[in-house]
Amino acid sequence: MPKDIIEDLDRRVLICDGAMGTMLQEKGLPVGVYPEEWNLSHPEKVEEIHRAYIEAGSDIIQTNTFGGNCIKLASYGLEDRVYEINRKGAEIARRAAGDKIYVAASVGPTGQFLQPVGELTFEDMVEAFVDQVRGVVEGGADAIIIETMYDLGEAKAALQAVRQICSLPVICTMTFETSLRTLMGVRPEEAVRELWSVGVEVVGANCSLGSEQMLKVLQLMKEASPEARLIVQPNAGLPIYEGGKTVYKETPETMAAFAVQYKELGVRIIGACCGSTPDHIRAIRASVSSG
């Protein structure tokens, strides 16, 4: 097994992987098929993606379990397979990673809202994540990454679920709009202070924004909480609807140039999100290693 991820990133910048969803689509994931179901039906395709990111230079790969909570899976009739899907997702990543690469188990939002905006209580939200977390932990994850969160309450519910199951390190990323606030109005400064104060080991931002705007988010976080370990995973640019599909046009070279700026800011984990490929990660790896 790899050494402790927190001790490691306190010594060096770690490179995370890139997009999973768009890569699965390239592998043939049909419209209407839930990505996490491929952990069961097409594990070899998922593993191919993990291996491509490792070959590109990733120190951390994320499991194909982003939407693996019971609420999301229930909408696809998979509510009875939550534990199985998540354990399998972690096992696939662990097999690809071997004993040199870290496996971070992806835990994404439920798509529902806490009271009073929605119908779920905090306890409901915690329960929504418990079987997912149990599955990825028993599948061999080294850390949990609670990602693409827009509500601090939901992020804390996921954190509580993790703490009920294990003592693995927790990384948490919020997702920000072009207003530099989340959908629920959370500012970068508020996010980093709150999450760092409740014991999240690495805090940051992912998705929604391209590299340039994401730099602004991380600068605000760094100013608000200089002691916090930070992670960044920008999209490969803002999504554009073109030719009947969503495309991302930020090049590997552009992402790599911003990766140097993230490193100079003190960010400890640098990766990418929607629209990115192993080529983007390869360029980021090279720029961070030489910058």
TrEMBL record:
For this UniProt record, give its keywords in alphabetical order, as a comma-separated list. Cobalt, Metal-binding, Methyltransferase, S-adenosyl-L-methionine, Transferase, Zinc
**Could you state a single Gene Ontology molecular function term?**
zinc ion binding
Q: Name one Pfam family in it.
A: S-methyl_trans
What positions does the entry give for Zn(2+) binding?
C207, C273, C274
Q: Which domain of life is it from?
A: Bacteria
Q: Where is the Hcy-binding domain?
A: 2-288
Membership in a protein family: Belongs to the vitamin-B12 dependent methionine synthase family.
**Keyword Hydrolase annotated:** no
Q: Name one GO cellular component term.
A: cytosol
Organism of origin is Candidatus Hakubella thermalkaliphila
Asked whether the UniProt record includes Metal-binding among its keywords, one would answer yes
> What is the name listed in the Swiss-Prot or TrEMBL entry for this protein?
5-methyltetrahydrofolate--homocysteine methyltransferase
> Might you name a Gene Ontology BP term for this protein?
methylation
Q: How is the cofactor bound?
A: Binds 1 zinc ion per subunit.
Which cofactor(s) are needed, names only?
A: Zn(2+)
